[in-house]
Fold this sequence. Notes:
Elements: H1 25-28, H2 32-44, H3 55-67, E1 71-75, H4 78-88, E2 96-100, H5 106-113, E3 117-121, H6 131-136, E4 142-145, H7 157-166, E5 170-174, E6 182-183, E7 186-187, E8 194-198, E9 211-215, H8 218-227, H9 232-236, H10 258-268, H11 271-288, E10 295-297, E11 310-315, H12 318-331, E12 336-337, H13 353-356, H14 385-392, E13 394-398, H15 405-422
Parallel strand pairs: 2-3, 2-4, 4-5, 5-8
Antiparallel strand pairs: 1-9, 6-7, 8-9, 10-11, 11-13, 12-13
Bound molecules: pyridoxal-5'-phosphate.
Amino acid sequence: xxxxxxxxxxxxxxxxxxxxxxxxxxPSVVGEEEIEAVTEVLRSQQLFRYxxxxxxxxxxxxxxxxxxVEYTLLVNSGxxxxxxxxxxxxxxxxxxxxxxxxxxxxxxxxxxxxGAVPVIAEVDESLGLDxxxxxxxxxxxxxxxxxxxxxxxxxRLDEIMAVARKHNLKVVEDCCQCVGGEYKGxxxxxxxxxxxxxxxxxxxxxxxEGGLVYTNxxxxxxxxxxxxxxxxxxxxxDDPMVDWQNEPFPRQTYxxxxxxxxxxxxxxxxxxxxxxxxxxxxxxxxxxxxxAKAYRFxxxxxxxxxxxxxxxxxxxxxxxxxxxxxALKAEGVTVGTIYNDGxxxxxxxxxxxxxxxxxxxHPSGYPWKDPNYHGNVEYSKxxxxxxxxxxxxxxxxDFNMNMTVEHARLMARALNKxxxxxxx
Length: 424
Ligand SMILES: Cc1ncc(COP(=O)(O)O)c(C=O)c1O
């Protein structure tokens, strides 16, 4: 074995000699354009969204065009967007909503905020909802399912939509981690009844915080709008463009700031460049890989559609995955096994203690003890063995705007080297 072939963890030369740059998509491309756009809003002193030609309404129009949808609503976070989308499709007290066991906790918390109960389902090797497990968890109380497109990779939408339609369930797509992603030629989010983007710091494009609800259904849209502003019809009743067809109801206030909207408009103008750079990195990484010895790729229904921000491989055994992680680190490539006992990742259901313990802000114990709810969902830390097994064997490689194609190739060469030696 040459010094190049010998693993760095065993004293060989590492594949990566200069650190691979880190970074987050949206924030890394912030430039003078964002600064100017935000400054202009501040100078105008027009900080409220309801005025003619507001930044928020312009962003909504531009986002609708980008997504190819009829209706969009800018709100103050991805969680708010999910709450509005769920309320929009009619989710409420007494309902169950199926969410995956691998997502940010906010997906399940948004369900709870509507008064409904989250039912947490297995993910499969797509690292998104397992359609068979979704079907197995449907009860007479199930109202909706929320496929989450994690780490830029669309879930198995065709199969999930088929299960949902068969059982007459609503679908709210959580696109918070897949802003700009596509599935079989259309943007993610247009397959379900409604969808949510997050525009927080970590997302494809960002304004620090923010979210977007989108749908092609006028009634869903109006209900989402009411869910985001209890005073809404009064703000817009002299606007001839708004002709509400549904009776308004009072809920929370999730209005966005004009500063946020102005920044988002600039970032939306950069999204295609971000996506094409990330996709080029992922393609270079995949193209450089040798035939795998001891791992498989995450299942991806549509490789051209994902946002390119990550690539995951699933090692055949958990112990081996941990060995790969350590060996890759010594080669200069940071990856993590997604599920490690003792490493609390808020994207894994087993760390959502507040939900697993059914903690409520009110002594009534809602939504689990709501008199409208007649189901009996139970949770425990090890209730999804398939999810824990797959995540425990997964290694995620992340790509960002500060990396070059050569960095992506180096990451692949490091994996090749480790797999050649440790993969048997
Ligand atoms: C999958 C997923 N859903 C929902 C959210 C909530 O978005 P926000 O943080 O903007 O409220 C996030 C944010 O990290 C997310 O990753």
